[in-house]
Write a structure and sequence with these properties.
The complex is a heterodimer of chains A (about 110) and B (about 110). Chain A is an all-beta fold. Helices cover about 0% and strands about 50% of the residues of chain A. In chain B, strand 6 and strand 7 (about 60-65) form a beta hairpin. The mean pLDDT of chain B is about 95. Classes of the chains: A mainly beta (about 110), B mainly beta (about 110). The interface of A and B includes residues 99, 105 and 106 of A.
Chain lengths: ~110, ~110
């Protein structure tokens, strides 16, 4: 039982490049979330998916797109990366009506 | 917008001492949760308290919630060097089928051996 996994762990992009961050969970959770964490800030919600087939914007969705590929996988795409998107990205998931979220190890992204 | 505001921003204590961290929030909540983050790692859930509860315990952790003051505190008793980490409060709100957490900026706890 791996929990929540994220790939890659580290990535360096040039401004304007695109990439997809992958997230998968093996806990049969319904809801999945993408957050970003910047120095001196808490986690801010980018997008979430309450269930397979649905996605909704969070607090800071601009510049990102998401895909809930199936129940296990929730990907985050940067179409045209900007230096302001340099951050650590965390994926999280939770089951049904429970309130506790389970986090992945994070992806550290630098945009030059 | 940040819902939870933790206080203090940083705390340094000696091993064996108790650590108290506070969190204040602004709007109605369904629950309040505390998470720990070790350096370079993801967040780990510590404890959850619901809006109709006043106090909960889990091992060396004690959390209180005062909804009239919109505040919570986390007490770690008999701290250990391994408790050195960042601690975040997160307020939970259920809206229809959607459940979201809003995190504070975190408290850096250093426990000196």
């Amino acid at each position: 039982n791996a929990g929540v996994t994220q790939t890659p762990k580290f990535q360096v992009l040039k401004t304007g490049q695109s990439m997809t961050l992958q997230c998968a969970q093996d806990m049969n959770h319904n809801s999945m979330y993408w957050y970003r964490q910047d120095p001196g800030m808490g986690l801010r919600l980018i997008y979430y998916s309450a269930s397979e087939g649905t996605t909704d914007k969070g607090e800071v969705p601009n510049g990102y797109n998401v895909s809930r590929l199936n129940k296990r996988e929730f990907s985050l795409r940067l179409e045209s990366a900007a230096p302001s998107q340099t951050s650590v990205y965390f994926c999280a998931s939770k089951w049904g009506n429970e309130d506790t979220q389970y986090f992945g190890p994070g992806t550290r992204l630098t945009v030059l | 917008s940040q819902q939870g505001e933790e206080d203090p921003q940083a705390l340094s204590i000696q091993e064996g001492e108790n650590a108290t961290m506070n969190c204040s929030y602004k709007t109605s909540i369904n629950n309040l949760q505390w998470y720990r983050q070790n350096s370079g790692r993801g967040l780990v859930h510590l404890i959850l308290i619901r809006s109709n509860e006043r106090e909960k315990h889990s091992g060396r952790l004690r959390v209180t919630l005062d909804t009239s003051k919109k505040s919570s505190s986390l007490l770690i008793t008999a701290s250990r060097a391994a408790d050195t980490a960042s601690y975040f409060c997160a307020t939970g709100l259920q809206t229809g089928a959607n459940s979201k957490l809003t995190f504070g900026k975190g408290i850096t706890l250093s426990v000196r051996p």
